[in-house]
Write a structure and sequence with these properties.
Largest sheet: 7 strands, antiparallel
Mean pLDDT: 94
Number of strands: 9
Structural class: mainly beta
Order of helices and strands: EEEEEHEEEE
Distance between the termini: 10 Å
C-alpha cells in the first residue's frame, strides 16, 4: 500500500517506513504530524475520491530538523564597484511515515 501525499508544497509518494525530507513543519523530534493524502493505492484498489480520502489518515513522525544545501547569491554591476554576496540554507524537516490508515 502506498499513498501520494501533499507535503510542504510538493507531492510525495510514501509508504509505511519511508523517510522523506519536506519543507519545515512546526514540531520537535518525536512529534506526530498528519499528511494530506491525494491518492491511495492498495493493491488493485485506487482511491482518488475526495470524500473517501477524507477518511484516510497518513501519520508521520518528525525525526529531526535539517537545513538544505548552501545557496550562494552574488550580485555584481560592472564598472561601479557594486558587489553583494548573500547565502541561504532552506529549513527542512526529516519525517518518517508511521501509518497509512483507511
Amino acid at each position: 500500500m502506498y499513498a501520494i501525499v501533499r507535503a510542504g508544497g510538493r507531492q510525495e509518494k510514501v509508504s509505511v517506513g519511508d523517510v522523506l525530507i519536506i519543507d519545515k513543519v512546526n514540531g520537535e523530534a518525536g512529534d506526530s504530524i498528519d499528511l494530506t493524502p491525494l491518492l491511495l493505492v492498495d493493491g488493485d484498489t485506487i482511491t482518488s475520491d475526495a470524500d473517501k480520502l477524507a477518511k484516510v489518515t497518513v501519520k508521520a513522525e518528525v525525526v529531526k530538523p535539517e537545513k538544505g544545501p548552501k545557496i550562494t547569491i552574488i550580485k555584481y554591476k560592472n564598472k561601479t564597484g557594486y558587489r553583494k554576496r548573500q547565502g541561504h540554507r532552506q529549513p527542512l524537516t526529516r519525517v518518517k511515515v508511521t501509518a497509512i490508515e483507511s
